[in-house]
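Sequence in, structure out.
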Amino acid sequence: MNRKLRMGMIGGGSGAFIGGVHRIAANIDGLISLHCGAFSSKPEVSKASGEALFLPADKSYTSFEQMIKTEAGLPAEQRMDFVSIVTPNHVHFEPAMMALDHGFHVVIDKPMTFTLDEAKALQQKVKETGLQLLLTHTYSGYPMVKQAKAMVREGKLGKIRKVYVEYPQGWLSSLSEKDGNKQASWRTDPSKSGKAGCMGDIGTHAAHLAEYITGLKIKEVCADINIVVPGRLLDDDGAILLHFDNGASGVLIASQVAVGEENALKIRVYGEKGGLEWRQEEPNTLLVRWSDQPMQVYRTGVGYADPLSSFAAHNTRTPGGHPEGYLEAFANLYRNFALTLQGLQNGQQVSAEALDFPSVDDGVRGMAFIDTVIESGQSTQKWTPFIV
């Protein structure tokens, strides 16, 4: 194959935030083109959105069912290669399953599905079909996050003992879902978001980041889950004690009522020999602390005598001092996914660096995290086992 991959999009039409982010990210490296879309459950909005994106009229579909069935019936050289699902949570499972059944790879937003049972069914379908699924846990795409993971994997910090991860936001400090805020409306609606609000939306990001960097798995949780804003139907704040499978302990804090905060995701990991710290709002910097020497500051794109890991280098785009942020991290996920698909289609061996993107297995753990945290928050028992 010597061409761009063709992407079909489900959701992400006029007025949607994340659809535009996906399209920008997919386009940055020139490996993917937007081929078709079913951009809204409202046919007129889908058609108008496709027109605004300069798609041919016959490539703007009125439903995801129509898109998948029509594209599957086209010759291989004319049909889409994968679908990107950027809908609210309750419209993830059905199009993902249908796409896989028709031979299409899948990109899907987190949390992966509406329920854990759906996640497990999707995991089984991916295994049966042998197709690829990318789960867009954006923060795993940052070069310094990959550097942190590599340092832990190489044992530079020693055995991990403690993990602190926090994700404060302030955008839901008032009942904005009642004031016409579209993004707030579906995220706080149990019929669309599922059983969790804040913990499903950003708590899953924090949990994934902790497991991704450390290579550990959460074993038990003890959760305090809150609805702070009167009249809200789902949690908007919470704190969780964590036990990991190597004996390490941790703390996870997620809140969407931290007034004035933007997207202040931060993680600190401490081992026997040293610790590290990374902040999403200062993403080019990784701080590494030692007990017997000064703190080290690692920076994206800088050529050190002891070079950064191949995974960090693979996902670095610009020389040091040029900020690489959210869109670039998102694009790294799409690029690695695209390189994997191209390699598989060409019968080539895919590099470990290209294969390093969140998968359906991460999606199942994300849904298990939601179930476990909500169960723990409602329980009088101190610790709740994390069971996938």
